[in-house]
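Kindly inspect this chain:
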Amino acid sequence: MIQLTLRNLKIFFRDKSAVFFSLLAVFIIIGLYVLFLGDMISNNGMSTEDTRFLMDSWIMAGLLAVTSMTTTLGAFGIMVEDQHKKLIKDFNCSPIKRSDIVGGYLLSTFFIGMIISLIALALGQGYIVFSGGKFLNLSQFVRVFGVLIISVLASSSMVALLVSFFRSNNAFSAASTVIGTLIGFLTGIYIPIGVLPSGVQTAIKLFPISHAAALFRQIFTEVPIEEAFKGAPVQVINNFNTQLGIVFTAGDGFIEPIHHIMVLIGTTLIFFTLAVLRFKIKKD
């Protein structure tokens, strides 16, 4: 498994275009936000001087959730390429277990996802500070790093099952384009969750990575919310958090952070198991 992981890492980072396109979603979202999304959201009923810091933190938190999915999707292109070139047959003929083969791809994808996501985190923090905001403190960074780990693991497991159904690069590229387009909506970046119909909100809450987005936002917006809503009633803050997808509602209450974490961990276990079973029964 370790050798397969190292082999996949070398292949990915040797391809400069693959690395660039893995970061492309980051550049696109930052670009869209700088050009018009930031002003559109910031001017939506808020006018305090701390609004920009708050909205910058909100968008960059969502960016991390998106990156955890798009980068792992790009990294699994190695598996699709191996299937297309029939190299996967060589692995299956070896004494390596199918679970170890899947684990090798998953482990390399996890490392790729973490590396690219940390680059995205650095870019996001740089943009926030450049725009007049503040860096995350040590405690916040540790929590972001922990959420990033389970987010990348959940994304990797989901994508592992998905790509097991593709045999050609064309099909994989088409699926990547569709997913890359939808992920921004499913994590509430392009349109805040609170303004969507209740049915769409429910669908978003069923999407595992949206729970990672909520966790990132709760951490990123701790300080800016305190500054922007200083002295504001709790109900006003709760309404804002709900509208922007910083917290999710369930019935008459809010979904606690531990529940978001359980969703992500459960997603990792379920989809990894399904991916292994899929590889065991599929015909090469």
